[in-house]
Specification:
Blueprint lengths: L3 E7 L3 H10 L6 E4 L16 E2 L10 H20 L3 E2 L3 E5 L5 H13 L6 E4 H7 L9 E5 L3 E3 L1 H14 L3 E3 L4 E7 L2 E6 L2 E10 L5 H8 L6 E11 L10 E4 L9 E4 L5 E4 L3 E2 L10 H12 L10 E12 L5 E4 L6 E5 L5 H20 L22 H10 L6 E3 L4 E2 H9 L7 H8 L12 H12 L25
Parallel strand pairs: 1-2, 1-12, 2-9, 5-14, 12-20
Antiparallel strand pairs: 3-8, 4-8, 5-7, 6-7, 10-11, 11-12, 13-16, 13-17, 13-18, 15-16, 19-20, 21-22
Helix pairs in contact: 1-5, 1-8, 2-8, 10-11, 10-12
């Protein structure tokens, strides 16, 4: 087995997979190494799903440049990769007349960053477009280029597209060391050594650990936990835009927004924590989410919450994206500190890092490259005639497994059989939404487990929630006899 590659990417989150897709345009061998069982298992799996307009970042920074370029790229990218995306616009709400100058400052910053079509809405116009906005609202910065996206599909589609263009992926493979080896690098991971001409460090909250293995100039990342609430789709239309408070040094604050699938999401908090891998949701965090949301949106029916969750953001001490060849480490490239607006910026980061690598390694573009990648077939989104034909040819698309989200057996089979297919309940959930509805998998999980067991050819008691030791079944209640 040949373990030598032109480029090794550490991390299969949205940034690593965006870089992998862009590098797949070139005639080179690329390996993505991921410590977890699937793509989208770290920072990328738990966020707001917001495509930011670009008025927040300090002008001239990489955050600002990558945000603006990523936003510009998003429409065509989502068309190519079949990703749900809606430009619904965002509102930054001022609820204190004494703080109005902050909205003016954000507007000026957005103009400097060349955010298009922004304007400041006064209270009357604001209430016309958002009737449930707080009675204290004075004005708001409106940015129509902001939107909402499915973050899971974005990450998965980038990875699938990279794979169909020749990029290899290694999962359940934790990098333990990176060593200079002649003109290249040796990457030690799960008792195997991989060699590469260049390494890209896109390891999220662990990116400082990877960087510090090779560089004397140390970096430090603080994991920042964010708690969220997800509300039922019965509330669709309660808010129509992404609604932000005025930002603070800890982030953009508690937002309220529709999701691209019709739910309403509220959050996140911003709490610095020690663990880089675990982000358990807390009662205290959910109380802060409730209190924060009430400052900008009135009467939000929080009894319609169907789940709470939390995620981690990788906050580097400098507060800036680090996208460069590490000092004194030729061929080792950092993508460090990719917090908000990292999801928005990922296509631009992929483009930018691929350009650095192509120049460093003198890469040539391929004669052929396929940038199109279709999602799982969704029969209940098809016209009735097409759906009926599909079900006649494939009866599995007529058997509903997840009632809340109307997900069929055919969709789940497709999600498992696809390149880089699902291997766990969460893998199926992120690819199909089975288990994301009101009952949160209470009805469909056993049936999804049966399908996973059958399709993967493994015992039922080996099926996990999210890989590793997260087994669902621990034993039998009685012996078979």
């Amino acid at each position: 087995m040949d373990n030598s590659f032109d480029v090794i990417i550490i991390g299969a989150g949205v940034t690593g997979c965006a870089i992998a897709r862009e590098l797949s345009r070139f005639d080179c061998s690329v390996l993505v190494i991921e410590k977890d069982e699937d793509v989208c298992c770290g920072t990328s799996k738990a966020n707001s799903g917001i495509v930011h307009a670009g008025y927040d970042a300090k002008p001239g920074t990489l955050k600002a440049k990558m945000n603006i370029r990523g936003n510009e790229m998003m429409t065509s990218l989502c068309e190519d990769l079949d990703i749900p995306f809606k430009r619904i616009g965002s509102l930054v709400v001022c609820t204190d007349a004494a703080q109005r100058s902050g909205i003016d400052d954000l507007y000026a910053r957005g103009i400097t960053n060349e955010v298009p079509d922004m304007r400041i809405l006064e209270a009357d116009e604001l209430r016309e477009i958002e009737p449930n906005i707080s009675d204290d609202a004075v004005c708001a910065l409106y940015a129509p280029t902001a939107g909402v996206i499915c973050p899971f599909r974005l990450n998965i589609a980038l990875a699938e597209c990279a794979a169909q263009n020749g990029v290899e992926f290694k999962f359940d493979t934790k990098v333990t060391n990176v060593i200079r080896d002649g003109d290249g690098w040796a990457v030690e991971a799960s008792d195997i050594t991989y060699n590469a001409r260049a390494v890209i460090n896109a390891a999220g909250c662990h990116a400082d650990d990877i960087h510090n293995l090779v560089s004397d100039k140390k970096l430090h990342i603080t994991p920042r936990r964010g708690d969220y609430m997800l509300l039922d789709r019965s509330l669709e239309g309660f808010v129509k835009h992404v609604i932000f408070p005025q930002p603070t040094k800890m982030g953009k604050g508690i937002l309220v927004t529709p999701t691209v699938h019709g739910n309403t999401i509220v959050g996140p908090t911003a709490v610095d924590v020690e663990s880089k891998d675990e982000a358990p949701v807390t009662a205290e965090g959910l109380v802060k989410v409730q209190e924060g949301s009430a400052k900008n949106v009135k009467g939000l029916p929080l009894k319609q919450v169907i789940t709470g969750f939390s995620g981690l953001r990788a906050h580097e001490d400098g507060g800036e994206f680090i996208l460069e060849e590490a000092e004194g480490c030729p061929g080792f490239f950092d993508c460090v500190g990719i917090e908000s607006p990292g999801l928005t910026a990922c296509p631009a980061i992929g483009e930018y890092m691929a350009s650095l690598l192509s120049e460093k390694l003198s890469l040539k573009q391929k004669d052929t490259w396929n940038g199109i990648c279709k999602d799982v077939v969704k029969p209940f989104e098809l016209p009735s005639a097409e759906r009926e034909k599909l079900i006649r040819n494939n009866p599995e698309y007529g058997r509903i497994i997840c009632r809340c989200e109307t997900i069929t057996e055919g969709e789940i089979i497709d999600a498992i059989r696809r390149p880089l297919g699902a291997k766990s309940l969460d893998g199926v959930k992120r690819r199909t939404r089975a288990g994301m509805g009101r009952c949160q998998g209470g009805f469909c999980s056993p049936r999804v487990m049966d399908i996973l067991s059958r399709e993967l050819g493994v015992p039922l008691d080996s099926i996990t929630k999210s890989g590793g030791d997260s087994k669902i079944l621990t034993g039998r209640t009685k012996d078979e006899g």
